[in-house]
Automatic annotation (TrEMBL):
Residues 21-294 form the NADP-dependent oxidoreductase domain. Pfam families: Aldo_ket_red (PF00248). Gene3D superfamilies: NADP-dependent oxidoreductase domain (3.20.20.100). This is Aryl-alcohol dehydrogenase-like predicted oxidoreductase. CDD domains: AKR_unchar (cd19097). It comes from Catenuloplanes nepalensis.
Length: 314
């Protein structure tokens, strides 16, 4: 049983305050995640999820132009949550400076129509920030300089992309995928680079690896032998008990929130009960450095193909 009495922490990064849990907005458009069994929500159900998150102390919801009806539903919900959104992916845009700048401007304008201002605005891909001498990034940065955006940043997929975007002037926010199985982000140079940026908001997605870690044996794990999957699940369950955690999900959440450079985790939900459960877990004390080291010492290594959902096949 999770402790529902604890208050959800709010963390400050250079005056930007964000709760330890951010509600993921991909599910507000439709079924998302390999373990989803409920399908996409109605407008009324989406609004209820958002209001429940606000009631639990969540400060922000994370969405994107690419998430279909998500922005509209957030804007119409009246939840009072502040919004982080992502510019529509720019891969199909002609690679000229003016065309990239125009695409960013048009995407932000459409987001603002639904969500109002100010927003936290990210480029959806690191490649979008680095293309054509950073043309899209220069355009996005003007929103922060003018006060129309609270922060601007980039969503990255890999440590190499993080190293690249950390060089961008005016970077205030990064979103990246990390979980208890993903050791790539523990490289010493990354720890040093992030320690130099205490003002940087680092929000982590994929804490449950799109639901695999919470679902355990109930679903097939891509690119992993079932025997290894069972070992991972059994180990997480055993260590959760050893460390006094409520369950495997609690351990996974506490591991990521214990990383010294993490501001928040972004986790979606299909039901109001899931929102409350995730808020309760994010309210608990994170793992200590020694506890995180113990978890890593007993977990088996897994292939990169499992850690990167873009490599999963139906």
């Amino acid at each position: 049983m999770t402790d529902l009495r604890a208050a959800l922490p709010v963390r400050d990064r250079g005056g930007y305050r964000q709760s330890a849990l951010v509600l993921g907005g991909a599910q507000l458009d439709g079924a998302y995640g390999i373990a989803n069994t409920t399908g996409g929500p109605s407008d009324a159900a989406a609004a209820a999820l958002l209001r429940t998150a606000a009631d639990c102390g969540v400060t922000h919801v994370d969405t994107a132009r690419a998430y279909g009806e998500s922005e509209r539903r957030i804007g119409e919900s009246g939840s009072g949550l502040r919004t982080i959104t992502k510019v529509a992916p720019l891969g199909a845009v002609a690679s000229g400076e003016s065309s990239l700048a125009n695409a960013v401007t048009a995407s932000v304008a459409r987001s603002a129509e639904h969500l109002g201002e100010p927003l936290t605005i990210l480029l959806h891909r690191a490649a979008d920030a680095l293309a054509v001498g950073g043309a899209a990034w220069k355009t996005l940065r003007r929103y922060a300089e003018s006060g129309l955006a609270e922060r601007v940043g980039v969503s990255v997929q890999s440590p190499a992309e993080l190293r690249a975007v950390l060089r961008l002037p005016g970077l205030g926010y990064v979103q990246l995928p990390c979980n208890v199985l993903d050791r790539r982000w523990l490289a010493a140079d990354l720890a040093d680079l992030l320690a130099e940026r205490p003002d940087l908001v680092v929000t982590v997605r994929s804490v449950y690896l799109q639901g695999l870690l919470a679902a355990g044996r109930m679903v097939r794990w891509p690119h992993l032998d079932p025997a290894v999957r069972n070992t991972v699940v059994d180990t997480l369950d055993r260590v959760a008990l050893e460390l006094g955690r409520a369950d495997r999900a609690d351990l996974c959440m506490a591991y990521v929130l214990g990383l010294p450079w993490v501001t928040s985790v972004v986790v979606g939900a299909d039901t109001e009960a899931q929102v409350r459960a995730n808020a309760a877990l994010a309210s608990r004390s994170p793992l200590s450095e020694a506890e995180r080291a113990h978890v890593l010492s007993v977990l088996p290594h897994v292939p990169l193909e499992l850690l990167d959902p873009s490599r999963w096949t139906p």
